[in-house]
Amino acid sequence: xxxxxxxxxxxxxxxxxxxxxxxxxxxxxxxxxxxxxxxxxxxxxxxxxxxxxxxxxxxxxxxxxxxxxxxxxxxxxxxxxxxxxxxxxxxxxxxxxxxxxxxxxxxxxxxxxxxxxxxxxxxxxxxxxxxxxxxxxxxxxxxxxxxxxxxxxxxxxxxxxxxxxx
Length: 166
Hints:
Elements: H1 12-23, E1 31-32, H2 40-47, E2 54-62, E3 68-74, H3 81-88, E4 91-93, H4 96-103, E5 120-124, E6 133-136, E7 142-146, H5 148-155, E8 159-160
Parallel strand pairs: 2-6, 3-5, 5-8
Antiparallel strand pairs: 1-7, 2-3, 2-4, 6-7
């Protein structure tokens, strides 16, 4: 499969993220990768960064209202569902169909913004170890650069301690 030649030919999710970033005045347009980066490790390898600098998106299903709960954490961390639930209420697992329906993105390309429906978002504090991070841009081949502070500004999400303790 060849990469789309222009941004107008790129997938809708990528275009939606690009438009949202432009509308917010974000200084870094999304970048289209030659290969998909569906995991934090794949993204780190392609970008030449540490896995912790990848802003990993983890989606849960709210048992209260069946909405999506997005946790954005450092790629080298594991989310603790119980710690997330302390902020959001009871949670369940989100399958690929649920993720696509609620966010408009496929697993491996879930961006922290420009979702199809409103989502509850939490940003894990461990991302703030880094000055520069990279997040998915609506497709496994799409990423964009930002700081943890910019992530918080773009999403309006609170910062919380929601990863497993060593």
